Every structure is written in C-alpha cells, then in structure tokens.
C-alpha cells in the first residue's frame, strides 16, 4: 500500500510538473497528471490480474538463456535457496544480452549428491546431429544415465548399424528399448556395445541407484513381409511388462522406472511403477494415469529425422532431464529442452515440478508403498515465450 501511494504521488506530481513546463497552462498540466494516473492504474490492474507467485516454480529459459543448467541449479535449490534463485533470475532477465559476460559471476553449478540426473531421449530417426546434442547435455547437466525409448533407426537395416557407434562416446550408461523402426538386428548390435543396456521382455537393470525395466516394441513397421495382426499388440506387450514388474516387486527388487516405446503399451504399467517413459508421438506430454503412475512421453530428439520437412514447419529437437532423489528414487523435477528444428536456431528450457514436490505439499510415498506414483496431476506447462527471454508468466 505504501508503494502504491508513493507511486501515485510521484506519477501525478511528476506528470503535472512536466505538463506545466511544456504547456504553461494549469488545466493541461492537471490533465497530464490525470492521464498518467489512469495509465498507472491500468498497469497495476493488469499486473494484479495476471499475478501468480507459483509460476516462478517453472521458469522457462530460451535463446541465450539456454545455458540453464548453470543458472537453475539442482532440483532442490528452487525451494531451499529460493531467495538466491530469485535474485539471479531477476538479474538475468535484465541482463539477457550480456549473459555470456555475467555467467562467470553466477554461483557454480554444484551437483547435488542426492540427485540422480537422467537424460530421456527418443525417436532419433538417424539424425546424426542428435549425438552432439546428447553429448553436450550429458556434459552440461552432469547426466548419470541416458534412457532412449526407441526409434533410434529408420529402417532397422544392418547398413544403418554404424550410425549407433557414437553411443560409446556419450559419457554415460545408455539404456535402450526397441521402437517400431528398430529391428532385432539393431537390438543385437547394441547388445554387443560396451556400456549399453538393452531392455526387453521386462528385463531390469540397476544404474546410478535407479532400477529400470522395459520391453521392446512388439511391432516392426518397415517389415512389410509380416502380415497385419501377426505381431503382438501394444496392450499385450504392456501387460507382459506389468507382469514382470509385479514379479520383481514380489522378489524385493521393484523397478523405479519402466521404459517402452509406445504410450499405449505404457498404460498397461499403471499402478505397477512410479514412472514410465515412452516416445513415438514426436511431441512431449506428461500425465498421471488413474492408478497413480506418471507417464512421461518424450518428443523426437532427432527432430523426426527426414520427416522434419513434411510439415509446414520443421519439427523441433526435444529431450528432457529428469531429476531423481537418490534416497526415495522418486522424480523430483524435470527440464524440457526444445531446440529449433531444421534451419532454426532457437533453444528453450522449461522446468517442471510435480505437485507433491512443490513447497508446502505433502511428501510423495516411499518406494515401498503399495501405491506407486503420486496421485497428483502433471505440472502445467508454461506458455511459450519468444527467443531470448526468461518467462515467469502464469500458464
């Protein structure tokens, strides 16, 4: 109230004084003061109507701010060091054009020892640019595990296998499931590579304190020799994975993350695992299913490959960084990363927090809880912002 009163007095007196100097008439000077007061009131009313303090929990960095890992910090810093985070965000918004000059003065990005970082990629579709992007993300975010939910290839032929060789140099363990464009030839080639973990038939593997279980896509799209309906359905594959997840939980080694290619197969795991990752749709989306399992669908990290030029605009290159608490092995937050597709030079990073991890919310259940996943809905996605800005606008 004090700020509002001071602002009104300053605006009216300043505008009236300036009007008197310019027009030399008291009536026009008062009119100038009244107009300034009206504009101030309209601005204040607009700010009041759109104000949402919670929107700062999901900042979006784009353009020059794409070096968000050094700016955002670990998944917990938004809550535990919110004042520092808020000051740095405000300073970056006002100094966006000088970002590269001020980054040396920002707090160092110190990995939280209780946070496991998982890079989720999908649908690379033979785009060679993806490997450089993935390698850069691994280095910038200090990624512990890379999860690829399939369609790394386009036709699944042996001639394409050489495309997979850069995986050995990415700098992190690589967890992979077969997509509908990946053949068994592709799968066998990856199984022979060091540091690659192929999941199929419900097989599980423990990496960096997390247990991943997955199943390959039952269908192989390029194989025209297979009669329609001869392959296992997506629903049946999801049911097989769910059965494997139940068996692992009964054996005392429950999975923390399930991985499939198609979301339709992922739905069969609802209630059996806290989080399931998939791809196939070539766009990102998140939902919490009926029994509490969170489904995270990744976009195309290859920008849809050659299909990028089929539409009016090129498809973006998308990937996500998932933050897990090492103790509870639950998802704490995730960053959606979107790069401009073919011919575009834009970059956006937006952070999302599940409702149960926001300040004041009840803690999520432990991994031993019979009800995996949180019943809360997905965190809303912030609205798009132009390149070169950091958004705190309410969704």
TrEMBL record:
It comes from the Bacteria. It holds the Pfam family Metallophos. Keywords: Hydrolase, Membrane, Metal-binding, Transmembrane, Transmembrane helix. Residues 384-395 have a biased composition (Low complexity). Residues 348-395 are annotated as: Disordered. InterPro entries: Calcineurin-like_PHP, Metallo-depent_PP-like, Metallophosphoesterase_sf. Residues 117-283 form the Calcineurin-like phosphoesterase domain. Residues 362-383 have a biased composition (Pro residues). The chain crosses the membrane at residues 29-51. The keyword Thylakoid does not apply. This is MPP superfamily phosphohydrolase. It comes from Streptomyces achromogenes. The lineage of its organism: Bacteria, Bacillati, Actinomycetota, Actinomycetes, Kitasatosporales.
């Amino acid at each position: 109230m004090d700020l509002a009163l001071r602002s009104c007095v300053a605006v009216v007196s300043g505008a009236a004084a300036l009007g008197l100097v310019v027009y030399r008439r008291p009536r026009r000077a008062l009119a100038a003061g009244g107009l300034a007061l009206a504009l101030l009131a309209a601005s204040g009313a607009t700010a009041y109507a759109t104000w949402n303090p919670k929107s700062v929990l999901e900042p979006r960095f784009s353009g020059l701010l794409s070096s968000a890992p050094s700016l955002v910090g670990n998944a917990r810093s938004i809550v535990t060091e919110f004042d520092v985070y808020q000051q740095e965000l405000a300073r970056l918004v006002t100094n966006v054009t000088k970002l590269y000059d001020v980054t040396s003065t920002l707090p160092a990005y110190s990995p939280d020892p209780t946070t496991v970082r998982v890079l989720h990629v999908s649908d690379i579709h033979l785009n060679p640019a993806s490997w450089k992007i993935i390698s850069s993300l691994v280095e910038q975010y200090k990624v512990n595990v890379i999860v690829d939910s399939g369609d790394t290839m386009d036709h699944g032929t042996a001639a394409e296998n050489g495309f997979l060789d850069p995986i050995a140099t990415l700098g992190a363990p690589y967890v992979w499931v077969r997509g509908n464009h990946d053949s068994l030839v592709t799968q066998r080639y990856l199984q022979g590579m060091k540091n690659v973990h192929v999941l199929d038939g419900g097989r599980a593997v423990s990496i960096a304190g997390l247990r991943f279980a997955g199943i390959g896509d039952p269908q192989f799209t390029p194989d025209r020799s297979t009669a329609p309906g001869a392959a296992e359905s997506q629903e049946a594959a999801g049911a097989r994975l769910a059965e494997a997840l139940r068996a692992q939980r009964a054996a005392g080694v429950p999975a923390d993350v399930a991985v499939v290619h198609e979301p339709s197969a992922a739905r069969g795991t609802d209630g059996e695992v806290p989080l399931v990752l998939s791809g196939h749709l070539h766009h990102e989306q998140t939902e919490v299913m009926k029994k509490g399992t969170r489904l995270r669908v990744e976009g195309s990290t290859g920008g849809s490959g050659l299909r990028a030029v089929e539409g009016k605009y090129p498809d973006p290159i998308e990937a996500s960084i998932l933050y897990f608490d090492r103790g509870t092995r639950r998802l704490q937050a995730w960053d959606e990363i979107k790069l401009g597709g073919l011919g575009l030079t834009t970059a956006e990073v937006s952070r999302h927090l599940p409702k149960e991890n926001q300040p004041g919310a009840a803690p999520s259940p432990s991994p031993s809880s019979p009800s995996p996943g949180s019943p809360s809905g997905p965190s809303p996605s912030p609205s798009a912002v132009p390149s070169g800005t950091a958004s705190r606008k309410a969704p």
